[in-house]
Amino acid sequence: MDAVTGTLEVGKSADFILVDRDVFSVPVAEIHLTQVRETWFAGERMN
C-alpha cells in the first residue's frame, strides 16, 4: 500500500478536498462558512 499512498506525487492515489479558506486562521465562529471548492478521490477530480 505504501507504493500508492502516503505522499502527493505522480502515480500515487490521493483523496482530499480543496476549501476556500485557511480553516486554521479563521475565527472558530466562521469555520462553518467554509466551502469545498474541489473534491479529489483516487487521484481524480470529482467536481
TrEMBL record:
GO terms for molecular function: hydrolase activity, acting on carbon-nitrogen (but not peptide) bonds. Signal peptide: none annotated. Residues 4-44 form the Amidohydrolase domain. InterPro entries: Amidohydro_3 (IPR013108), Metal-dep_hydrolase_composite (IPR011059). Pfam families: Amidohydro_3. Coiled coil: none annotated. This is Amidohydrolase 3 domain-containing protein. It comes from Gulosibacter macacae.
